[in-house]
Amino acid sequence: MALAGSPGGAGWTWRPVARDALLARAFHSCTELRGRFYLVGGLPAGGATEPSGDTVVFDPAGGQAVRLGARGGPRRSHHDAAPVGGRWLCVVGGWDGSRRVATVAALDTERGAWEAWSAAPGSRPPAGLSSHTCTRVSDRELRVAGREGGTRTQRRYGSVYTLRLDPGARTYSYKEEGCHTASRSGHCAALLQTPGPRPGHQLLLFGGCNSAEPEVAGHWSHGKLGEEPPAAPHLREQLARLVSTGQGSRQGPRGLRHHSCSVVGPFAVLFGGETLTRARDTICNDLYIYDTRRSPPSWFHFPCADQGLKRVGHRTCLWNDQLYLVGGFGEDGRTPCPQVCILDLFI
């Protein structure tokens, strides 16, 4: 496999570690829970409008994928999902084949059964959500960001919601926040520490519109956030060494959407996606690293010559100090990738 490099002699690639036709899909969710990756829904091929209703569990330690036998799974694509209580996988919103929805379906991973949770009294749900983001800010609270609307009407700005989840009551409740963002679809979200002696956190949105500027969709002062990201000390050190070989920029990628994003310590790692800045050859294979260790933060761009690494509608997952790439369509924007890869860095 070709190695993407930088002038400093460093390089990176995605190294295949597993392959299974069950994993071949795009615009799915892929969520780590108790050392397993849960893939829900997605589209089986480019041009498909009917999302899959299956759930596949991938064991990264053993490299094996199995289809979950649970009935009643949601048919969804362009949705998002988050773990709750170390037990439930909550699937939020998405496209069900005919409309955008804002409902929540939950997989009880202990029982291996899907549950249809209901909206609590007083919930103010969005009209519909797709290509949005859901970010955990505590074990039972998500911050939802994206453009809402049905297939005919959509707001011209992005909405931000707090979604509270109650596993005991099997209910959820939306509350719209006062802040609005640019109209974004297919963006990513990263919960990152703010630099300084008393670091807080902010939720940044990247891409999903023509702007190259990240946008704040939430801010929490020091000690106010109940969410600790997984530690990845080795990968964090490797990323620090990789960016030390590059040239930082204040300008991020412009017009990128349906890319992946994972937070590794002070870094947001973005990969692939589709660019809105070109009419042809729109699927990307670039690695971008957003470094928040200093103020103002810097972008580092590490391009790639390997056409086989182009991806859109894929997901990345952090587990056991390694970053995994799962699914997505390849360079033709139509063929789903059955591989699971690990990010290898060579410094």
Automatic annotation (TrEMBL):
Alphabetically ordered keywords of this record: Kelch repeat, Repeat
GO molecular function list: cyclin binding
Keyword Repeat among UniProt keywords: yes
InterPro entries: Kelch-typ_b-propeller, KLDC9
Subunit structure as annotated in this protein's UniProt entry: Interacts with CCNA1.
PANTHER family according to UniProt: KELCH DOMAIN-CONTAINING PROTEIN 9
Protein name: Kelch domain-containing protein 9
Taxonomic source organism: Lynx canadensis (Canada lynx)
Taxonomic placement: Eukaryota, Metazoa, Chordata, Craniata, Vertebrata
Gene (UniProt): KLHDC9
